Amino acid sequence: MKKFLRKVGAVVIPVLIFILMRIIWYTTRKKFHFLNSISEEQHVCVTWHGELFMTPQAYRQIHKKHKASAIISSHFDGSLIAGTLHFLKIRSLRGSSKKGAKQVLLQAFKSIKSGEEVLITPDGPRGPRHSMSDGAVGIALKSKLPILVVTYTAENYWQLKSWDQFVIPKPFSNVDFYVQRISLEGMDLTEAKTYLQNKMLENTIL
What we know:
The protein is 39% helix and 22% strand. The protein has helices spanning 2-27, 55-62, 76-86, 101-113, 134-143, 189-201; strands at residues 29-34, 44-46, 68-72, 90-94, 117-120, 147-154, 157-159, 167-169, 174-182. The strands form 2 sheets. Strands 1-9-6-2-5-3-4 form a 7-stranded mixed β-sheet, sandwiched between helices. A two-stranded antiparallel ribbon has the order 7-8.
């Protein structure tokens, strides 16, 4: 019975989440701050796990038609995220740094080679919040692609008591999105992780 309910939930819950996401999207006052020039070139795209309620929609606002895939955990909550992103035409690559890492990294490089942008939450799927795993930086360094950072702040919001302190802006509040292109050229892995983490923390809800 539990297995059946999970299967039903994996279909129904993403629909409900997406409807709620769109309601919040259309009822908030959004302002985009492009901190430097963003072109149509291919990127590795990053956002914090706790900002997934809004940032995939912001990504689609910026790159309306660009083919994209997202690295998502193989857990059940990952299935819900994957089902929700499907409505934004973002393909899912299932795995994480702890489970199925090698396979999902191979999928990511295959996606990049085909021209897709790869979306990653550096602190996902289990945190700690605002930490920096090797995944996003490693993929960017090896593929020699710049990173597109999308973060946001909100005037009024709900914050869940989850490990990522998941943020949901309240309707009719002001939401400011911060978008920047970051090059990691010439950096080693440790240096690049610290640099990217600092850049992502500049404009986010702490």
